[in-house]
Each structure stands twice: as structure tokens, then as C-alpha cells.
Amino acid sequence: MRVGLKNIKIRFMQYKAFVVEEKGGDYISSIKMLDTNDLPQGEVLVKVRYSSLNYKDALSATGNKGVTKNYPHTPGIDAAGVIVESISPFYNAGDEVIVTGYDLGMNTAGGFGEYIRVPADWVVKLPVGLSLKESMIIGTAGFTAAISLLRLTELVNPTDGKVVVTGATGGVGSVALTLLAQNGYQTVAVSGKEAEYPFLKQLGATEIISRKQFQQIEKRPILSAQYAGGVDTVGGTALENILKSLQPLGAVTTCGSVSSTQLNMTVFPFILRGVSLIGISAQNYPTYLRAGVWTKLANEWKPTHLMEIYNEIDRDDLPQAIQSILNGKLKGRTLVKISLS
Ligand SMILES: NC(=O)c1ccc[n+]([C@@H]2O[C@H](COP(=O)([O-])OP(=O)(O)OC[C@H]3O[C@@H](n4cnc5c(N)ncnc54)[C@H](OP(=O)(O)O)[C@@H]3O)[C@@H](O)[C@H]2O)c1
Predict the structure, then answer these.
(1) Which of 123, 130, 274, 311 is the most buried (most CB within 10 A)?
(2) Domain extents for the chain?
């Protein structure tokens, strides 16, 4: 529930943020000193300890107007930290919280700054069983993997057959592989990084297929039925090939478009095999369901390989990491240290 958006500018604090500016058509990033007075209105002011790097942050930081319309801007769709001021009856100063999705880091100053101010209904209390750091190793990518699995388990059981995961070494893919394996699913990882096959095996992949092989264009409208389910993070040919290769009543979730936003196929897999395509939107996942997912991620779905899937960087390392994620070169999750206290 949202209470009135009264301005809570009680204290004015200077803070450091990774800011992107538009200069003559180029997008230039630097660390700047900002003032909490300039943050948008909202019920809760949070001192950010950790953020994480997601693909969308890289788009925001490089001038993708579909993500961020106005610059200068502080990206960061993820933030975990401690409330310093709150006019919400649901939160108090000192509460440890997670903020992901909604407009954070898109057109609202995001987690790459030491402070964020947001509406109370964007906030989830850090569940017992998860530290702030662990919550940001999971971040939006891990949350997306979790809601993908939640939706998939409505239609596909571990005994139904194999589940294929694309973009397997990426943020969503690596957490999805881990969660599927710990929930008893046989998985087929699709990856373009041959050197990371041992990493994928470590996360629980039963089989690995090269991205090049998997993304071959198939003119046939339907292929031999091989998979009970899929978690697709890349779109395009990969998603088409999964849909065409699902067993009767199989299902695949779609969350990403790293490869392509297009789907060029017939309706045959849907009307002949009764397969389902499940759309995933972490950004707009309902507020009343979010805390439940985070609690699951802190307990029975806490990723077993959490400590092996991340790399920690400082705010100063962001430009290089942003280029790497855009080039599809990052492995697993990238945790961003924002402030020490
Ligand atoms: N809808 C939502 O709610 C939601 C939430 C989070 C993320 N997303 C989207 O999901 C996608 C993945 O996010 P992420 O955080 O996992 O990104 P990521 O960490 O960059 O992972 C993407 C992975 O895709 C593979 N890849 C890279 N370039 C590719 C290409 N040209 N064709 C096919 N595969 C390619 C790579 O894995 P391999 O080398 O192993 O193949 C890469 O590691 C992005 O599009 C992101 O915006 C959507």
C-alpha cells in the first residue's frame, strides 16, 4: 500500500554516484558528487551498500532511450541497503531492504549511487537467511530466474524430461541452471563459451550444447520433441528452436532478447503439441508476490552455487564491466560494491 507522496527531504547529504551524461550524442560516465536533495520524491531513503550489473543497466549506461529517456542519469536497477529515513508506516530507519525493478535505474536514479529515494511499495524487507551482499549476487537476474522457475513448475515436473537453458553462463541463465538442478530437473545448457563448460557442469548442467549449433536456422515448422521445458534468455532463433522442440504440453519461459527481439515461426507447436510460451517480467512482477519469492530465495531456493557465480567489482570498474556484458562476455553475476556502511 502506498501512502501520500510527501517530500521527506529531512537531511541533505552529499554522496557519490556513477552518472551517465549525454554529450553531443555520446554517453560519458563518471563518478560525481550529488545531493540527496536532488533525488526524486518517495517515502523511503536508502543508503545503498550493494548493487549489481544487469544487461538493462548496460543499455541505460550507453544511451538506450527505450530504457532511459533523460540524462544525466544514475543507472542501477538493483539496490540493497539500509533505510535512513522513512515516512512509510511499513518501514523504519535501520531496516535492511532490497529494491529491484519498477522504474529504479531506468528513469529514477538507481543503485549505482550511494543513496536512492523510492516509493515504499518498491521495497522488500531483506528476508532472514539472506545478507545484503547475497541479495545482490542474486539481484534482478536471479529474481528473474526464480520467477521463471516458479511459472515453469506450474506446467513442467522434473520427471517430464529435460529443461533447456539458453544464455547459460549469463546472469539469468547461471542462476536458472542452479535452481533447476537443485529442484531435481535435468538440464541442457546452451552456451557460446566453450571454455566455461566446466563451470556449467559445476552448476548442474546435465548436457551442454554450443550456441552456434543450437541457433542454426531451422525452416521446418516443428522438430523432434526433445525437451519438457525451457528457460530462454536470448530470444530469436534459440527461442524458436525450443518452441519447435518441446514435447507435447511442454513450456518455455521468455525473458530476454540478447540475440533478437524477433520470433519467426508458425503456430504449429502450439496447436499440434499444445506447448506454452510464458512471458516473464521481473520489472512488473506484482508487489504482493515479491516478498514471497525473496523469502524462497533465502531458504529452500537459496542458490547452492551462489558463491561460485559472482565477481565483485567497485563502482570505478563499471565502465569496463558494462562493455563486457554488452559483448556477451560476462560470466554469472557481477556484484557492485557501493558503500561500506
Ligand atoms: N524480462 C525480464 O524481467 C528480465 C529480467 C532480467 C533480464 N532480462 C533480460 O534477459 C537477458 C539476459 O539477461 P542477463 O542478465 O542474463 O544477461 P547476461 O548476463 O549478459 O547473459 C546473457 C548471456 O546470453 C548469451 N549471449 C550473449 N550474446 C548472445 C547472442 N548474440 N546470441 C545468443 N546468446 C548470447 C551469453 O551466454 P553464453 O555465452 O553462455 O551463451 C551471455 O552471457 C537480457 O536480454 C536481459 O535484458 C529480462
Answers:
(1) 123
(2) 14-126+309-337, 141-279
Pick the CATH number of 141-279 from 3.40.50.300, 3.60.40.10, 3.40.50.720, 3.40.50.360: 3.40.50.720
Q: Is residue 17 scored above 90 in pLDDT? A: yes
How does pLDDT run across 178-219, given as a tens digit for each residue?
A: 999 999 999 999 999 999 999 999 999 999 999 999 999 889
- pLDDT of residue 4 exceeding 70, the answer is no
Answering whether pTM is above 0.90, one says: yes
Nearest to 44 by CA among 16, 2, 73, 14: 2
Distance 55 CA to ligand 1 centre (A): 7
- Which comes out higher in pLDDT, residue 7 or 278? 278
Whether the CB-CB separation of 255 and 282 falls below 8 Å is answered with yes
Q: To test the ligand 1 pocket, which listed residue (178, 215, 234, 335) has its Cβ within 8 A of the most ligand atoms?
A: 234
**Residue 7 pLDDT level (bands cut at 50, 70, 90):** very low
* Apex 334 CA angle, 240 and 229, nearest 5: 25
Is the minimum distance from the CB of 144 to ligand 1 under 6 angstroms? yes
Judge whether 39 and 109 are in contact, CB under 8 Å. yes
Within 8 A by CB and 6+ apart from 329, the residues are: none
Average pLDDT over residues 101-112: 97
The domain 14-126+309-337 having CATH identifier 3.90.180.10: the answer here is yes
> Please, what is the angle between helix 171-182 and helix 132-152, to 10°?
70
Surface-to-core class of residue 174, CB atoms within 10 Å of its CB (0-12 exposed, 13-18 middle, 19+ buried): buried
86 Cα to the center of ligand 1, angstroms: 35
Predicted confidence (pLDDT) per residue in 57-84, tens digit? 999 999 999 999 999 999 999 999 999 9
